[in-house]
Design goal:
Blueprint lengths: L41 H4 L1 H27 L2 E2 L2 H4 L5 E2 L3 H7 L2 H34 L2 H16 L2 H11 L6 H7 L16 H28 L4 H9 L4 H12 L1 H16 L3 H8 L10 H7 L4 H31 L1
Antiparallel strand pairs: 1-2
Helix pairs in contact: 2-15, 5-9, 5-12, 6-9, 7-13, 9-12, 10-11, 12-15, 14-15
Length: 334
């Protein structure tokens, strides 16, 4: 009897992969264009620009026409005779040559720029200091400061000038009395502040700064309120004192506000007129105390010369503001 034969092991057979089925390529189809009915009509696209027309028309009529008229007159010989119908004679650059060739005009320009920069700097320093003070004091003191600055800001210019003239009056002024009695400066008892140009500009600086500070205070104070308290507390925990937190943290955060306010102050202080004119009428020497605004007013009988001088003033204003704006943009890029 024979033994059963053992099965012979066989190797596993790998499955045969099926050939890939080709997938038909679907051609890309461009999205259907929006029907013409879905496009915004021309009226709706021009709507935002049409809304600007009511604001642009008064600006163009109220500012554009006088500016163009002034520019044209500056190239003509235009005086009182032309006001009664005599045709104006075209003289080209003669008015500009005559003005810029006068050393006195250059003195007025230099005084105006110096007065503008000094007043703008003092206004910014005092205004920022008071704004910071308002963030530190209590509610009662803050409200008192706000009310006082609102009164100083809201008082009409001529009323303010009347008060300041009495304060600096040579006979009955409080300033002279304080300098003579409590401080013992007997030579200042009857001192006339408006006779000498230097003291005249000192009085004018006090008045201009007094009337400009409230705007700076309220604007910078509003900016300081937007500084996050978490940043200030974190800096305090890191060991920064009050001055370091203000200078290195708060001031950089409100720098755009400071730039805009300083730019406005430069423009306003360069074209100051009312304060200087009223002080001149109070007894100051006119020729030695002229700034650009009052000097242009003194040329009122010669319209062509006044127009040329006003154009020069406009160019100076644009030059100062352009230089300042370029510096501002450079610092923002950094």
């Amino acid at each position: 009897m024979t033994a059963p034969r053992s099965p012979v092991p066989t190797a596993p057979v790998a499955p045969v992969a099926a050939p890939p089925v080709p997938v038909p390529r679907v051609p890309a189809v461009a999205p259907p264009e929006a029907p013409a009915s879905r496009r915004k009509p021309l009226r709706s696209r021009l709507g935002p620009y049409l809304l600007l027309v009511p604001a642009l028309v008064p600006i163009v009529v109220g500012l554009g026409y006088p500016l163009v008229r002034q520019f044209v007159i500056s190239f003509q010989e235009f005086g009182l005779a032309q006001q009664f119908g005599r045709p104006a004679e075209w003289v080209g650059l003669q008015n500009y040559v005559e003005l810029l060739g006068d050393s006195y005009v250059w003195g007025v320009i230099a005084r105006s720029i110096a007065f503008c920069l000094v007043n703008a700097a003092l206004t910014m320093v005092v205004g920022v200091a008071l704004a910071v003070l308002m963030t530190k004091v209590g509610r009662a003191a803050r409200i008192t400061l706000q009310v006082g600055m609102l009164l100083a800001w809201g008082t009409p210019v001529l009323a303010t000038m009347t008060v300041w003239q009495w304060l600096f009056d040579s006979q009955y002024g409080v300033v002279n009395w304080l300098l003579a009695e409590p401080l013992g400066m007997e030579s200042m008892r009857y001192h006339s502040w408006l006779i000498e140009p230097l003291s005249f500009y000192g009085v004018a600086t006090v008045i201009v700064v007094w009337m400009s500070v409230p705007f700076v205070v309220f604007t910078v104070y509003a900016g300081l309120l937007q500084v996050p308290e978490e940043c200030m507390e974190a800096a305090q925990l890191d060991g920064a004192n009050a001055w370091q937190r203000l200078w290195n943290l708060a001031i950089p955060m409100v720098k755009p506000v400071l730039f805009v306010v300083a730019l406005l102050q430069i423009i306003w202080d360069l074209r100051v007129f009312t304060q200087i004119y009223v002080l001149q009428r109070a007894g100051a020497p006119t020729r030695e105390t002229h700034l650009l605004g009052t000097y242009i007013y003194s040329l009122a009988k010669e319209f062509s010369m006044a127009g040329a001088m006003a154009t020069i003033m406009l160019v100076i204003t644009l030059g100062l503001t352009t230089f300042y704006i370029r510096r501002m943009l450079r610092q923002e890029e950094v």
